[in-house]
Amino acid sequence: MKPTAISLIALCLLCPICPAEPSAADAKRQAIRNLLEVQGASKNATRMLDMMIASLKRSNPNVDAKFWVAFRKKIDPNDLIELIIPIYEKHFTVEDIHQVTAFYKSPVGRKFVSLQPQIMQESIAAGQRWGAQIAQQVMQELQQQQ
Hints:
- The chain is mostly helical.
- It has helices at 3-14, 24-39, 41-59, 65-74, 78-91, 94-105, 107-145.
- It folds into two domains: 21-105, no CATH class; 107-140.
- It is built from seven helices and no strands.
- It is extended, with a radius of gyration of 25 Å.
């Protein structure tokens, strides 16, 4: 073999050891994954999945508990994360993602993440009260028009 062939073989053998530089798109996707992690998206997806399954259990009381356990094991909340990444890619630059990530890593950002479930619960309750008030107004005004 010629020295060039030996060099080519050596280069091919070393390639797996020296990983390729990630593309800009790959780097952006990884930055988004990091952001979603510090936002607690995976925990929230797991919480949402468990709430959906609990609701399905209540509406299907005759289904064996083993089914729900087996079904839950099949579902990976990270699948939702992978569906969300392209949405962030479309709306934010990688620099935007880095800045938002820095916020979520700050003390106030961590506080925001820790309070988000409580804030969402209270916001949903407020929205339900607001909707009930609007429905009551509509009914009153409809009755007055009759």
